[in-house]
């Protein structure tokens, strides 16, 4: 696979092309999240956790896409409306999930290019 952000490739592209391809200064970062939930939680606790998680993500100005089934929350946090996902935001959301009583363990990836990475 060709590195979408290689110096040689970026040098050939005009700003308009870099923006269209979402490379260089227009690269968009995000991170994946896998949270395993405790099995002994009350029936409505999982729905409450999902609602609270989506609110926490929304408060940071970003979005979450993924699925919630079989006691696992799995997806990716990605930028919307020009708000960039940062390492501080990743750490804050990771800490938020770890602090929840319904969650047994959390795995967050490092920041990755949401358009040109296999996640």
From TrEMBL:
Any one of the GO CC terms: cytosol
Pfam families in the record: YggL_50S_bp
InterPro entries: YggL_50S_bp
Name used for this protein in its record: YggL family protein
Lineage: Bacteria, Pseudomonadati, Pseudomonadota, Betaproteobacteria, Neisseriales
